[in-house]
Amino acid sequence: MIKIKICGITNAEDALGAVELGADALGFIFHPQSRRYVLPEKAKGIIDQLPPFVFKVGVFVDEDPQVILKTVNDCRLDGIQLHGQESPEFCARFRRRVIKGLRPQREEEVARIADYKVDALLLDSYHPDMMGGTGTTFD
User: Fold this and answer.
1) Architecture of the domain delimited by 5-123
2) pLDDT tens digits for 30-82?
3) How far apart are the two ends of the chain, measured CA to CA in Å?
4) Which residue of 32, 104, 118, 120 has the smallest Cβ count within 10 Å?
5) Each residue of 17-47: b (16+ CB within 10 Å) or e?
């Protein structure tokens, strides 16, 4: 069964529309350098309007684990997506479902994927100035 996650949600209208169209999960980006950054307080307001059983994911980039945990608890997130340089050990410390985003630049970097014991992996195109969501395909 295919599951669909729509990431970069910044308002309730888009969130509810995505769910109505069949999204299983919504991603809220808590990385201030992202153009789709959302304040935790705003994300909580959006999340409070969602129907039950929508999986809510917080996207973080090289964030302090205490900040991640506070945001997860305050916003009532179901999962965590780590999209920076987080190590396998860092990813393993959370008691929520974890998605690890990786941006391999070279083929030999793909081998390190096996080191991550997470619930899901997301492979994204490398871009020197963007952490993800580039819209660029890669081999």
Assistant:
1) Alpha-Beta Barrel (3.20)
2) 999 999 999 999 999 999 999 999 999 999 999 999 999 999 999 999 999 99
3) 24
4) 32
5) ebbeeebebbbbbbbeebeebbebeebbebb
* Alpha-carbon span 99 to 82, nearest angstrom: 6
According to DSSP, the residues that pair with 98 across neighbouring strands are: 80
d(CA 14, CA 9): 7
> Can you point out the beta strands (E) in 54-139?
55-60, 79-82, 97-102, 120-123
What would the two tokens of residue 129 be?
């100035």
Catalytically active residues are: 7, 124
Q: Hey, is 118 helix, strand or coil? A: coil
Phi, then psi, of 10 in degrees rounded to 5 = -130, -5
Which residue ranges make up each domain of the chain? 5-123
Stated pTM of the model: 0.89
Where would I find the beta strands (DSSP E) of the chain?
5-7, 25-29, 55-60, 79-82, 97-102, 120-123
101 pLDDT more than 80: yes
